Amino acid sequence: MQTKSGQIESVDELKIIMRSLSLNPTIQEIESYFKEKGGKISFADFLDIMYTQSKKESVPQEILDAFRSWDVKRTGLIPVRDLKHILCDWGETLQSKEVDQLLRDANFTGPNVNYEQLMKLICAPPPDY
Predict the structure, then answer these.
(1) CA pair distance 40, 33, nearest whole angstrom
(2) How far apart are CA 120 and CA 123, in angstroms?
């Protein structure tokens, strides 16, 4: 997908690149971005588009909503066994030992996890060493 100009020059290229980076813009959104940028997208334009799209998608909120769907009593907690089931069996799966390490690193103990605290931890920017 290398272009001689160093720019993204087609809707299909932009779609493939954005989706490979875990964003899910609609075809209409991609076409709109292309039109706004005059039919060629530089790297700076691409970063602007990615930022704009990531704000639209609100992935952390979508994940919180998914956890809330498991929290039928609205306690703010999800059983560790359910969290492991979600993380180990759906989508991009983790190994059970990876989930155990995540919970240890986050100092979560007990049979339940506060999923809002978990999301704050996961979505926090990495430390700047």
Answers:
(1) 10
(2) 5
CB-based contact 126:118 (threshold 8 Å): no
Residue 41, Cβ neighbours under 10 Å: how many?
A: 22
Residue 49 has pLDDT above 80, yes or no: yes
If one counts every other C-beta atom within 10 angstroms of the C-beta of residue 46, the result is 17
d(CA 48, CA 97): 37
Each domain of the chain, given as residue ranges in start order, spans: 11-57, 59-123
Strands 77-79 and 112-114: antiparallel
61-91: pLDDT as tens digits = 878 888 898 898 999 999 999 999 988 998 7
Q: How far apart are CA 70 and CA 118, in angstroms?
A: 15
Q: Positive or negative CA dihedral for 85, 90, 95, 98?
A: negative
pLDDT at 5: 67
Domain 59-123 matching CATH 1.10.238.10: the answer reads yes
